[in-house]
Amino acid sequence: MKTAVVTDSTAYIPKEIRDKWNIHMIPLNVVFGTEVYQEEVDITAEQFYQLVKERELPTTSQPPIGQFVELLERLSQDYGSVICIHLSSGISGTFAGAVTASSMVENIKVYPFDSELSCMPQGFYAIEAAKMALNGDEADKIMLHLEELRKSADAYFMADDLSHLQRGGRLSGAQAFIGSLLQVKPLLHFENKVIVPFEKIRTRKKAMKRIADLLGEAAANGENLQAAIIHANREEEALVWKSELETLYPNIEFSISYFGPVIGTHLGEGAMGLGWMRK
User: Fold this and answer.
1) How would you write the pLDDT of the chain (279 residues) with one tens digit per residue?
2) What domain count does the chain have?
3) What would the DSSP string read from start to end of 189-249?
4) d(CA 70, CA 81)
């Protein structure tokens, strides 16, 4: 029984990699006024960050249930099962949408997987699942492997502009104002499926060093790790950081990814992050 792999756009897996491993993607949306854009379909990250400079900050929304149902019905023509890997259920209803849609489609068994995080670490799950599916592994075996990988998955990120976190309800106005005065860079991570503050660090440079140190702690047990540097419209800085990290940790496989429109709406331009998982 062939198994398909679906993830959502917030994994930010480049199209050529999705095509290579036969990963199906369902997009989340950014909404500027009355205009709705499906990220990774109607709008790129570069276009988004340019548009944000010209317009009010958008809102975001999960895929409609009907879009899920349509995708699952199409997949049911060629596959007997599908693994749906989505961003954390603590920050979006996308995972719940996949669960609901799964009960509305016949002739295909749906295995929803809550990544409990987002961005490229979510993508790591999807790529690993897709490789196993193409190898002919059954969905149950793939799901067990994903749960095993969860033990090694982690991500930390830094918001450069506190106003986005404030508008998203994560910081009060006073906190954002004082934080900006003090150059505080809040270090964030996922805990119990939601984004929570990890530490407050005074400068961008120190915040990035702290994230690198956390990666070093994770790698200290000798596990073979892959890591993604994630940036919000800061590609040159990401390339420099990648070079530095490769020197520090030559045994870790590094790649560069990005915070696209949906996650970028909440973190703001200039955010930087690092996510990792066992290879």
Assistant:
1) 899 999 999 999 999 999 999 999 999 999 999 999 999 999 999 999 999 999 988 999 999 999 999 999 999 999 999 999 999 999 999 999 999 999 999 999 999 999 999 999 999 999 999 999 999 999 999 999 999 999 999 999 998 766 666 665 545 555 555 555 456 778 889 999 988 888 888 889 999 999 999 999 999 988 899 999 999 999 999 999 999 999 999 999 999 999 999 999 989 999 999 999 999
2) 2
3) EEETTEEEEEEEESSHHHHHHHHHHHHHHHHTT---EEEEEEESS-HHHHHHHHHHHHHH-
4) 15
Is 120 in a helix, a strand, or coil?
Answer: helix
* pTM of the predicted protein model: 0.93
Find the domain containing 12 and state its range.
3-28+63-150
Question: Which CATH number does the domain housing residue 20 bear?
Answer: 3.40.50.10170
What CATH number is associated with residue 273? Answer: 3.30.1180.10
Cα separation, 102 vs 111, in Å, equals 8
Does residue 218 lie in a domain region? yes
Are 159 and 134 in a shared domain? no
